[in-house]
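Page 47, continued from p. 46.
Same chain as before, 295 aa.
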Amino acid sequence: MHGNEWWPAPAKLNLFLHVLGQREDGYHRLQTVFQFIDLCDHLSYQVNRDASVHCQFVDGTPPADQDLSSQQNIACKAARLLQLETGCELGVQITLDKRIPVGAGLGGGSSDAATTLIALNYLWNLRLDTARLAKIALTLGADVPVFVHGEAAWAEGVGEYFEPVNLPEPFYLVIYPGVRVSTAEIFASTQLTRDSRPIKIADFLAGRCGNDCQQLVAKKYPPVREALAWLSDFQPAMMTGTGACVFARFATRQEAEQVLEQVPADWQGFLVKGCNQSPLHLYLEEQRMRAVAED
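Result:
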């Protein structure tokens, strides 16, 4: 087992996001489509025998401009939950190379948790199937199971009902306008639209959809509004999740690169490729094939 290599935790885009209503428990009923992109955090796992779980960053501290305590905790929380669910007496030292912006709507924390579940299931030799891992994942957050399943998906409910979809895999330009958006704040707002009518996959494919959180976030966070307006001058732009990132699709890498070169200096731009299969699952398969070859 190779416990000190870098496992990818890919970001995601919500290609649309509709809020259908709110349940009695406070959670919102959603419809969305998730697609992975090849922007990834990277995590390494050093298995230990004393059952301790620790998380550190590549240089020993979080990046200076980001408070990553929540991301640090969710990777550790995933490891401890896996111990609890399986009775595993092994532990782990997690090292996180954080590349996905925090509070950006790209699912970085959820992806870190999912990668931790999948990596430790393999490294601790627990042999849990995907359905069991996804059930554990849902207790960590609504977005975590889709990263565990590892396929682009149409999702409903609070994120627990989803089916794989086969989508084009275009180039996207993703812009992070330098503000963090609180998902809890947006979903708690009385100004959020919560009464979208359910749509079918055919409606999504025909473009009859949008992001119900976008208008509210753009109103509360001017940099998001400005990024949407700027990117829309080149291609139709949309916010992912509850923001702050906005994205647009391009027919070719060259077209996306030309716009990337013009992104204002106080924003971060990422040229990424859409992925219907998670880079994490491709990496896991490589690990398994290597282990078989070495036996």
